[in-house]
Amino acid sequence: MGIDIELFESMRLELRRGSLVLAVLACLRTERYGYTLRQALAADGLEMEESTLYPLLRRLESQGLLESEWREEEKRKKRFYRLSPGGASMLAALTDEWRGINASLDKIL
Amino acid sequence: MDLIDRYLNAVAAQLPQDQRADIVAELRDMILSRFEEKEEALRRPLTEAEQEEILRDVGHPLSVAARYGSGPQHVVGPELYPWWMFGVRAGLIAIVAITAIGALVRILIGDEEVGRAIGQAFHSIFNGAIMLIGFATIGAFVIERQKEKPSFLRDWRVKDLGLFEFGGSLNAEAVSRGLSEGDWTLKTSPRKARRASPMARAVGSAVGWSVVLLWWIGWLPLTHTTPETLNAVVRGVDYGQILSQIHTLLYWPVIAFGLARIVFDVARVARPDGVRFTALGDIGFGLAEGALFGWLWLYSPLSKVVFVPTVEAFAARVTHTVQDGWWPLSTVLMLCVAFGFASAVVKVARSAFRLVTGYDGRLPKG
Question: Which residues of B touch A51 (CB under 8 A)?
């Protein structure tokens, strides 16, 4: 019996949603601006819409997990983001959590 | 003005003033990067249609701006929605009951034909429902935007859940018992009947008084007629005029009483086991009710209809009515006022007992 594609799509999105913050934090161990960050995530198989990514970056910055600064590059001013010290600690804690969930799921699956 | 400026202006208009320039600058860079990427792939400048396609892919300005919002992105969220739904359902039942009673009274006193009264009742229920849903939604909208959610969402107890059994069913028996006894538990199941808990009674009372107060000040159009237009002249007495005079005289006192009652009920929800606190409030409200019925008996415009000077005269009027088998409206009203006064006295006495002893037999055991 085939699966309901629409239902699968909504469940897949729900499954991915929680992992995106972890992916963004991990990717920003290297300084990047929004556009290159999105490309880096896509290259690793995590496509993310701009309308999701940019507000998420601002939220993480307001939570003290990211730092940012405006700089000129390629004749345009761009906002560069990087992990803050608090963000690095959070990333470490979330990575442990993720690995724990992954190990549990591996056992179940 | 090119497409990107028009798009960003539409986004900017939805953003908070202090973050507008920063967010728009970042979005502009992102969109220009998308344009450049596509131009590189096509090895030519983009047409207007191609630019517009990319902007559509980024998202509608309203959706894009909304994602930058710090507050909730909904009017009533999933946690509050069941409460909103319950409040609306309970309020609708109260509206239907009040409207039906009003229509019945108008038919009985011959003020309106049955068909017209029913038609107007449906119209009133529809208007009342729209108003109720509007008020409930405004209330939920405000609650959703509080940093700390009200404690009733999490600090609930199983013994207070009787009220919510009622909400799941439009059961006529439960409605009539709830209105008459303040007991909103379902008794259609074979289990033993039990009383509503103090918290459930307080919530029910607060909701009921809110509906009554909104109706009293005219914000809940449940009745199409005003006392002045009520053609209720019975045996030479214009009850419409009497009602109108009473409404004018009691307008502010009823509002003050209703507001005090709602504040008191909300305070009772916060401390459902405060027997003496509840008793003290009940004494105050009992005295106010007693004063109201005393005023209706002695000094109000209704006094000329219901007043009798002695207990003997009262008994003689009741005896005559019983023997005659015909119940004039004036005697029915006299009995209602007398019964109301006696109920207030009993209420004050029972509350005084609870205040002194600190014991409330209505409290669920355990």
Answer: 58-59, 63-64, 67
Cα–Cα dist A91/A24, whole Å: 10
Helical spans, DSSP H, in B153-238: 162-167, 172-181, 198-216
Q: How far is CA B194 from CA B94, B160, B180, B182, B351, in A?
A: 22, 12, 15, 12, 21
Count other C-beta atoms under 10 Å from residue B136's C-beta. Answer: 18
Q: Which chain A residues are Cβ-neighbours of B67 within 8 angstroms?
A: 51-52, 54-55
Hey, are the CB atoms on B67 and A52 less than 8 Å from each other? yes
Taking only the tens place, the pLDDT of each residue in B107-137 is 776 666 777 777 778 888 888 888 889 888 9
Q: Do A50 and B30 touch (CB under 8 A)?
A: yes
CB pairs under 8 A between A and B: 38
Q: Helix B3-12 vs helix B48-58: angle between axes, to the nearest 10 degrees?
A: 20
Say if residue B138 is exposed, middle or buried (CB neighbours under 10 Å; 0-12, 13-18, 19+): exposed
Q: What is the span of the domain harbouring residue A31? A: 14-108
Rg (CA), chain A: 16
Is A77 in contact with B59 (Cβ distance < 8 A)? no
Structure tokens at B270: 């916060």
Which of B234, B258, B281 is where one domain is finished?
Answer: B234
* Number of structural domains chain B divides into: 3
Shared-domain flag, residues B81 and B215:
yes
Identify whether B319 is part of a domain: yes
d(CA B278, CA B355): 8
| Mutate: best of B11, B19, B22, B26, partner A, most A CBs <10 A | B26
- Cβ-Cβ contacts under 8 Å, A48 against chain B: none
A8 touches chain B (CB under 8 A): no
Q: Is residue A3 part of a domain?
A: no
- Chain segment B308-332, per-residue pLDDT in tens: 888 888 888 888 777 766 667 778 7
Overall number of domains in chain A? 1
Tokens for A58, please give them: 């601002």
Contact A79 B67 (CB under 8 A): no
Q: Is the overall model pTM greater than 0.90, yes or no?
A: no
Q: What angle do CA B207, B209, B211 make, to 5 degrees?
A: 70
3-state secondary structure string across B141-175 = HHHHCCCCCCHHHCCCCHHHCHHHHHHCCCCHHHH
Dihedral sign computed on CA atoms, order A63, A67, A71, A76: negative
Within 44-83 of A, beta carbons closer than 8 Å to B belong to 49-52, 54-55, 58, 70, 76-79
